Amino acid sequence: MPNIHQQERRVRSAARERGENLRWRSTAKTLYKRLESAVEGGDADATKDAHGDLVRWLDKASARGVLHPNRAARKKSQAARLVAGPKS
Fold first, then answer.
1. For the chain, how many helices (H) and strands (E)?
2. Do the beta carbons of residue 79 and residue 54 sit within 8 Å?
3. 3-state secondary structure of 67
4. Is 24 in contact with 64 (CB distance < 8 Å)?
5. How far is CA 3 from CA 8, 14, 16, 42, 78, in A?
6. CA-CA-CA-CA torsion sign (27, 31, 61, 71)
7. Residues 2-37: pLDDT tens digits?
8. Contact 75, 32 (CB under 8 A)
9. Positive or negative: CA dihedral 46, 55, 70, 26
10. pLDDT of residue 27
11. DSSP code, position 42
């Protein structure tokens, strides 16, 4: 337990920030799962919408510093490959 008042505030704010970061990462995973199910379902409109939502969310998370930019780029690339389908 912190002994200094400023440390107590930092513990509280760090806990709040951890919760926010968890929410951003969890939502990104959920959006990726929605994209996977849309691709499996074969609905082109739903796939396009889910892909756009995921890319937008990853860009925002990267800009906020929740995700490393390279990780966001990797996830976007994986999503694009999923949408494109298997190679012929």
1. 3, 0
2. yes
3. coil
4. yes
5. 8, 16, 20, 58, 46
6. positive
7. 889 999 999 999 999 999 999 999 999 999 999 999
8. yes
9. negative
10. 97
11. T
